[in-house]
Structure formats: structure tokens, C-alpha cells
Design goal:
The protein has about 300 residues and is of the alpha/beta class. It has two domains: about 90 residues, Immunoglobulin-like; about 180 residues, von Willebrand factor, type A domain (Rossmann fold), CATH 3.40.50. Helix content is about 25%, strand content about 30%. It has seven helices and 15 strands. The strands form three sheets. A six-stranded mixed β-sheet has the order 8-7-6-9-10-11, with helices on both faces. Strands 1, 2, 5, 12 and 14 form a five-stranded antiparallel β-sheet that branches. Strands 4-3-13-15 form a four-stranded antiparallel β-sheet, with helices on one face.
Length: about 300
Amino acid sequence: MMTMGFHRLPWSTLLAFLVLSSKLSPGESAEPAPATYHSTVSEVRLTFFATEHNLNVAQLKKDDFAVVDDGLIIRDFRSFTRSDATRLEVLLLVDSSESVLPCFRQEIGDVLHLVSQTSWIAADHVSVLSFGGVEPRILCAGNCRSAQAEEQLAAATAAGQTPLFDTVLFAANFLAEHHDSATRPVIVLFSDGEDTISRNSTSDAVAAVLASEAQIYAVDLGNAQSPSHGTMTLQAMAAQTGGRYFAIRDGAAKVLSGMLEDLHAGYIVTYRLPSRMAGFHWVRILPTRNLNLQFRCRHGYHYAGAVR
């Protein structure tokens, strides 16, 4: 970790540092294929989270960070505010396919624990969707803290194939229909990350989540001692949407804590579209003074080009 403060550097040097930092360094793994997020607006809007030593930063200033948009340094922001979201719209995705049978009862126990938590406020909406077989199925919508919903969850069984990507896309569309400016949409995905039957791809699924402005909090049901392709899929989906990745051993309490922390720690920055080039624009947020700051946001957006 470098210890030189950005405030001691000439601005031209800082720009060079940021641009170089936005590129992959030798030996760093390649980014996953970009998701398709279609937009025709001339303004980019990013919700992001800032941490220092793994603690949320409550007093961030606009000169504490810069946005790197496809290698272009952005510091002239149209707006910079704390997120005004006051409640959560949570959709729990429960993998009920046969591939998670060994840990299915633990998964259901964690989901029940999340649903029954007293940390929710009355305005929070918690819905549950299960997927195993051909299509996802909504078990309860918005009212999953009822005794009847908990009984239905407890009686669930695991069978069938895994339409993971179709389910995530369905969930994103569900949240988009219920989203408003005072609500933070969240997908909590319990899965081993494997897909066996979906018609849509992982890029299709992530694109829909980006369009819904939701974050994915992925809970890996796989073997933590032997990370698999499914683990990498879950990590990528969480990272691309600005969410978080957990292993099932972390427990439901840690997942809930992460969501509630983010609800009150988000920032929103907007800036003029820096390039009219159609296609996917990679986005990163980097510190400009305090190198201990770390930022989490979606990895980019898709610009379809100017409307004629």
C-alpha cells in the first residue's frame, strides 16, 4: 500500500495515477464479461458505498474521490448526496434445486432467521421466491413475516434443475416494478452458483439487476473449502452490482447486518455522460487523498448511443 498522500502530488501526476490504477495490473485476473445495461440518458447516476478499515464512512466529501469512467477522470459532479433511501425492498431467492440438497435445511433455516428478524422496520418489504425446476415461484410477496409464510418456507423441499439466471432476471424485473426513490432494492441470493436450465445468460441476469438499481447479496451454499465455478459466478454477480458476497458459514445475521449497514451508508453521485461512444462503460471509484478509503459500486453501465 502506498503511503504518499494525494494532496502532496501535482494534479497532472494524480490524473496519471488514477488512469493507471483503473487498468488491470500484471497478474491481476481479467474482469468478467460486461453486462448489458441499456440507457439513453445523458447523465450517469451511481449509488456507492465507502469504507475505511472495513467500517462505513459517514462523512465523505466530494473531493475525497474521483470516478474513472472508461479511463476518463470525473471530478466535476452534477450532484453528490447521501442516499435518501429509508427502507428496504428485499427479495430472497431460495435455491430449491436438487444440487443444494446437502445444505438445503441450513439454507431454509437462514432464510427463516432473516424473515423473522426484529431489525426490519414496518415499512420494509420482504418477499421470498424459490427456484427449482423449470420456473421460479413466488412463495410470498411483501408479507413474508407472517406465520403462514414461515410455515410454507419450513415445509419447502429441494428437487429439480437450477434456473439460476432466469430467476435473477425475474427477480430484477419484480423489484423494478416495486421500486421508488425512498426504497433500496436488494436481492439476497442463496445458491451454489450453478445453473443447469436457464434460457438467459449471466450477463442477461446482471443487466436486468443493473437496470433495476438493485444490489445482489450472494450467499454461497457451496463448499467454502473448495471454491467452484459457481463461487466465482456468485462473487462476480455481487461485485458487478455493488453488493456483497458471503459464505453460508457467515450466517444470516451477518447478511442482515450488511444490508442494514448499507441502507444508511450509501452515497449517490451524478455526472454528465463523458463519452457518447455506444457500448459498455467500465466505472471505478478511487480515493484522491486517503488511500485507506475503499469504494463499492456497480462496475459500469451500457450506453446505447444518442437518440436520433
